[in-house]
Write the structure tokens for this entry.
Amino acid sequence: MHGPAIFSIIITFSRQTTSYLMRPSLLFRCLLALVSTAWASIAAALPLETIKLPPGFTIELWATVDNARQMTLGGTDEKGGVLYVASRGAGKVHAVRFDATYRAGAVTRIAEGLNMPSGLAWRNGSLYVGAVNRILRYDAIDQHIDRPPAPVTVTDTLPKETHHGWKFIAFGPDGKLYVPVGAPCNICDPSDPYAAMLRMNADGSGREIFTRGIRNSVGFDWSPIDGALWFTDNGRDMLGDDSPPDELNRAPRAGMHFGYPFCHGGDLPDPEYGARRNCSEFEPPAQKLGPHVASLGMRFYTGKMFPAEYRNQIFIAEHGSWNRSKKIGYRIALVRVRDGRVASYETFASGWLQGESAWGRPADVMVLPDGSLLVADDHAGALYRISYRKP
């Protein structure tokens, strides 16, 4: 049973029992007991005890959101705030209110019927939603969650192909909106603007290509140290279980090319297109990730709850392989960075994959203002919160 269903039951229950439970205190206790029981049953259905974390870290179910993909943080103050969550497969966008202690409250659907709304970005009170060929904007959304405004179309001229057409979007330090356009294929040599990272002004004007040679990026963030863009890229399929790797790339400037479709992982010529160009012509990845791990959302950790060694390091949601003979990924990876270079690539949280059976698939990560880390799971329909307390 998901969150919206719980609240539907509560409403029905309250309407049917108000005439019998005349005392407000008794009605409140009954409602509270119902919520607690329903929430406990949801939490018990997810085997969080299988998740392995470093000492001092704990994970809990924070909220239930159908098909949870990219997250973005709305406005926050001393009373709490709002988290927005895209549901790509469900075609919906949700808002999750939370209080001053960062406990999640009601989950509210603010949009539905959209075409693969995977990407979200919040800026100056407005929520931007990436839905394949369209970027929509919901103004003053924090104040109108229960009655969302009609969206403003920022642009509707992005490519319409749905193969790698869903978007992860974010505003950069330059104030521009960054929007990737994936290759409309497994392997091909498409023309602009495919296989590229675009950027544009907040109103959709001034659109330009920032980088090329990117097959399918579904996660990126900017270094809090030097402002460079780092992004994940999903490698091509049908070259075997162990080839090519996914990539973590670093783009400190515009105009760089990262190799697709000619070269994969910095040193692997494509069997079909590799003869046309030499791998040395392209920017190699900052880190080769696991082959077919489906690296999606990534964030630099900028909080203060975790130990200092985690600050300014990268967390990556590895969604998990779909066509590998032995499954891989299904975890949160940690990439440690020193002086703009990768120092290590390791597991931070694992356990969603048990043997060859996966009960969850991490799709995105997000740092809350208190320093805890949220994880979106589109398979389990859940948001988890990872916290730290010194052992």
Notes: The chain has two domains: 1-45, 48-388.
